[in-house]
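Morning - C2E inputs below, output right after.
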Amino acid sequence: ARDGETNWHVYNGSERMLSYLQDSVDWRKKTEQALLEGNFRLKYQPIVNINTGAVSGYEALVRMIDEESKLIVPSKFIPFSESDGNIGRIDKLVMNKALSDFPILLRQKPDLELHLNISAKSLTDPAIVSLLQQYITALSLPAQQIVIEVTETAAINQVNIGKHYARQIVELGCRLAIDDFGAGYGSLTYLAEFPVDKVKIDASFVRMISSSEGSSRLLSSLSQFCIGMNKVTVAEGVEDVDVLNMLRDMGINEAQGFIFSRPEDLSDIIEANFYQYDIADINATQNQKQR
Ligand code: C2E
Ligand code: MG
Ligand code: MG
Ligand code: MG
């Protein structure tokens, strides 16, 4: 299922319907238990400027810790949390943790951005906006370096409602990104109507550019459009150097993906103190592998 959406279309037929209902009860219990015990952890994945190789920021990505201390990826529990209403509690927990962590990152590289994922449902929760405000004030955080990622879904499809809440984020001085752009709902209305500073192009779209000329032309045009509109473009899920080079040629600004790094623990990032990739070296390493 697509991230951040109910994944119930994978359960068709009555047997599957029953198993969906069972799963949603189970995940709700697990999630509520984890919320009570604080059993969530954040990973951080770098976002890299593909022209300079500099790390421009980190995206906070939540994991649930299960009874055996294993980490559970969000695609397992977030779709259920969005249906049962627990998503707001998760987003608040993540916001608390990530905004408390942010000064530690800023001490190492003061211009880093912090990307936070907020469900479209949480965007309409006034408590989220005031929590953001409180942290910015209490910790003197650079608001313009906080990027709130919202996935384009049916929930913000009602442009007027979405716009109202989006504006509150922007009024705090924070920036707004559309996440998973091109993954489904893909409406150009967002780009025209929303106060969006960044467009994150979905991994499924990014991956198509090496095999489909149509996709690569489409992305090229989107990139040009964003340049004209003063929006930063970020390619998600970049694993391959050929794709990286195509993205750069198209004028895409930033990239995120296993080619640079998987999501990591904050302590490992701080210890490594590594904020500059060598793009020429990534090319050379890949060429060596091919030989
Ligand atoms: P997203 O915001 O689009 O995050 C990118 C996802 O792609 C992450 O998955 C990341 O680990 C994965 N990824 C990054 N680079 C690569 C790559 O090169 N190859 C592949 N195959 N995957 C890559 P993750 O961490 O499992 O998160 C999945 C989704 O869960 C996120 O998608 C986001 O929509 C949601 N999510 C994560 N944390 C939160 C949160 O705190 N709140 C909310 N509401 N949603 C969250
Ligand atoms: Mg995201
Ligand atoms: Mg995304
Ligand atoms: Mg995604």
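Note: Residues 179-180, 200, 202, 236 surround magnesium ion (ligand 3) (CB under 6 Å).

O.
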